[in-house]
Design goal:
Elements (H helix, E strand, L loop, with lengths): L3 H11 L4 H17 L4 H7 L8 H25 L3
């Protein structure tokens, strides 16, 4: 089911369907899939939605934020006794 809806949208565009009709088709299909019991995540996959790769973001946060937090924690520990 991964991406079939996105492929269908591409086919509709190539066939010359106007964008408002394509948008309506997507909304109707989304509604039908939801009523049939598919989850939002499954419907998203059908329309080609993928989860972003957060690993680079986490790495940057650790590299840039952790040193600042370490300094702040050291400062608080120095000001506050024991």
């Amino acid at each position: 089911m991964a991406g079939e809806g996105l492929q269908q949208i591409d086919s509709l565009r190539k066939a010359g369907f106007p964008e408002p009709e394509i948008v309506q088709w997507r909304a109707d299909t989304h509604s039908q899939l939801s009523k049939a019991g598919f989850s939002s995540k499954e419907i998203g996959v059908y329309f080609g939605k993928r989860a972003p790769n957060m690993a680079p973001v986490k790495t940057l946060l650790i590299q840039n934020i952790a040193p600042l937090l370490t300094k702040e924690i050291a400062h608080v520990m120095a000001v506050r006794p024991g």
